[in-house]
Amino acid sequence: MPYVTVKMLAGRTVEQKRALIEKVTAAVSESVDAPKENVTVFIEEMEKTDYGQAGVMFADK
């Protein structure tokens, strides 16, 4: 039973998340020969104030 976690900045629409879950599920199912029913996708959203890169908070970019 593959479990996939996608971490991304908040702000995507429900439609975008739905498409992401659908496509990630298909890719994992095909790649590891697992039934789609056994693939679970988690989306963890981060606020721009909770994440930084190269010493700069994303909210400040």
From TrEMBL:
In terms of InterPro entries, this protein maps to: 4-OT, 4-OT-like_dom, Tautomerase/MIF_sf
Give the EC number: 5.3.2.-
Pfam families, A to Z:
Tautomerase
Q: Which CDD domains match?
A: 4Oxalocrotonate_Tautomerase (cd00491)
Class of this enzyme = isomerase
Q: State if Isomerase is listed as a keyword.
A: yes
Q: What is the protein name stated in its UniProt record? A: Tautomerase
In its UniProt record, a GO molecular function of this protein is: isomerase activity
Q: Does the keyword Metal-binding apply?
A: no
Q: Lineage from the top down?
A: Bacteria, Bacillati, Bacillota, Bacilli, Bacillales
Instruction: Write out the similarity annotation.
Output: Belongs to the 4-oxalocrotonate tautomerase family.
Where's the 4-oxalocrotonate tautomerase-like domain?
2-60
Keywords on record: Isomerase
Q: Which domain of life is it from?
A: Bacteria
